[in-house]
Specification:
homodimer, about 425 residues, mainly alpha, Methane Monooxygenase Hydroxylase, Chain G, domain 1, 2 domains, 17 helices, transmembrane (chains A, B), Aluminum-activated malate transporter 1-like (chains A, B)
Chain lengths: ~425, ~425
Amino acid sequence: MAKVVGLAKKVKKIGEDDPRRVVHSFKVGLALSLVSLYYYISPLFNSFGTSAIWAVLTVVVVMEYTAGGTLSKGLNRTFATLLAGALGVGAHQIAILSGEKGEPFLLGVFVFLLAAAATFSRFIPEIKASYDYGVTIFILTFSLVAVSSDRTVDAYELLQLAYQRFSTIAIGVAVCLLTSTFICPVWAGEDLHKLVASNLEKLASFLEGLGEEYFGEKVGGETMESKCFLRAYNSVLNSKSNMESLANLARWEPRHGHFGFLHPWKQYLKVGALSRQCAYSMEALMSHITSNERTQVCAKMKPEIRKMITSTCKEMSIECSKALKDLAATIRTMTTPAVCRHNIAIAAATTKLKVLLSEESIPSKMLETAIMASLLSQVVQCIPQIAASVEELAQLAKFKECKTLHKATVKPSTEEESPGVVINVME
Amino acid sequence: MAKVVGLAKKVKKIGEDDPRRVVHSFKVGLALSLVSLYYYISPLFNSFGTSAIWAVLTVVVVMEYTAGGTLSKGLNRTFATLLAGALGVGAHQIAILSGEKGEPFLLGVFVFLLAAAATFSRFIPEIKASYDYGVTIFILTFSLVAVSSDRTVDAYELLQLAYQRFSTIAIGVAVCLLTSTFICPVWAGEDLHKLVASNLEKLASFLEGLGEEYFGEKVGGETMESKCFLRAYNSVLNSKSNMESLANLARWEPRHGHFGFLHPWKQYLKVGALSRQCAYSMEALMSHITSNERTQVCAKMKPEIRKMITSTCKEMSIECSKALKDLAATIRTMTTPAVCRHNIAIAAATTKLKVLLSEESIPSKMLETAIMASLLSQVVQCIPQIAASVEELAQLAKFKECKTLHKATVKPSTEEESPGVVINVME
């Protein structure tokens, strides 16, 4: 009984996490009901006969969660069926020439060789990524046509069968495409777009938490391990395969919303890869923080040095967090990024930290803090790269010019050329 | 022309990288040829009729690269067909009760609801992992039976059709299983086993390269970035999804080689997760090394301190590399690990490094080196965890006792209880 309640709660949560899943389930039901109308409407049934089961089969197999997935599978299925059907009929004509005894043998050889070659082609990464399903359907259709043509003597009958089957498959694909692109469509491209932005936001919230809770005044009794911001970047670490499959599907999608047919999906993968890189550095910083927590080295240091280092670190984290949030907003709103107004502050804080750490000699009790600061700089080093890749994305995807007012910045932007001065301003 | 040559080279490389791919392609061809014999042997064809196409269809769709994949798909297909067929016939019987006009309507409602519910169930992670294909086939078969039963009036005819279809599917599945488990089988479990071991070896070769080329005497004119050992651990970073899918398939595989039916595949995922953790720390160390290379801080240090730190780091890296290699060998040979003989040396070197770094004050020019040493310690911290998880694996999987002679070790193992002494020995 408890298990049933647990399952019900789980199911409810899955639906609540993303209500599009519920919608998708009903869409599949709808598409299937639509396609089974063929059976119930007598004139249609009479013209297609039992081939109508191919329409049902197609709907079940082709209908995917994202519009790109459905389109990719639908087109793969349609073209693979056409190509393999034509090749199958051709193979049948060649086999006939070899006489009644040789025919099945020759057909068997054809099927064997084609199936082996096509199966091998699925190991080629480019084919695997975009045409895997097409190759399966190619093997399937070729085998079916080549094998069953042996039993269907009449050429006219064969052609009619081929026509019926192809048109039912086309109808199935059409029903799927209509349902998945017109009724609450789930675009893989949009999901990828949002995923990249939300990954940047996750990195930002780690840095924000670090700045405010770890370096900030709030450092208190709780252990660091219990803070949830420390795990914010966690899902970024393993985002690679999900992003790649979304990018693969997005390429199939037609123009929708702000995304054209040739939207630079590959650039999203670049931004994603750099975000992962940044998350790796965060992981190193995080494990340093949690493993050195008990020693509480900070507390033993001379107060003024401690204060200077932590306040610089705090500034760095918070400015970086803001920069990442801006970049995420750039992606979300699809506006060209304003010249990153946090860059100056970040560069200044980094320089200041270097100056602080290059004092003639460092008390060894401060080493842990110095290491932590250095790990933080490594995280910070990733930000300009991410910013550059987002700018490239903005260019490639022709984000619209940002016309909104700049928010007030602490430092006048004319000082951009003389970063040395900025340090003085900040001290 | 150049493109064709390029493609040919690529195809050749894919085949050479893993010759099992070529074998698999021919196995698919063979299975298809075997199953199409139904068409050519008249008595068989006469008893099954056109239902024989379902055997061909099954082979094309069920045959997977790994034995576990084929088994999982085959069993999913068989049981889903049985269950959905029975439910479909039941639904038909209920629908009949509602009269000739109500029947198609009621059947449509059934199809709609069942398809929606089953589609939704695919979002539950446990079902997605193991029964995704089964759910698809369930929807497919239920729809086909429910929809087409409306046109097949005769109950006897319906039963015969169901029997024919089920038996052809079972034959297709049987052909697939026989080909994929008896002819050069590719076991997902074995692949997972080897992948986990080779990941540990990759981590080991990074540390070995670090010890010998970076800390060793060979530090010379070449830039660090060009060294290939620095990228050895790279494929470990993104190994998660591949490992999880292999572990999912491995669970379906019957006893083979040293792997029983209930082999602890989940423990491999744990070892894999810890290896990834270690690779993240390596990434942090690596980016520190490459980004601070130009400053060449080492060169400016007082020679004796520099020598002491680098030689300790060298020792740590090399001992850790040996420990990882031993763990990989433990997995490969499936023998219980001897009490890790490198643990002592690693612990000693770590302590020594701590002593070196806790001198009263550190010249700030040494800071980069200190940070690097500390990053290395973070990598080293992962090793005991990996060792523990491998030991747990050895216990769970009942690895055989190691009876081989221990290789000569530098330090006598009696010193294990007094690690303090070891430091003296090493100095």
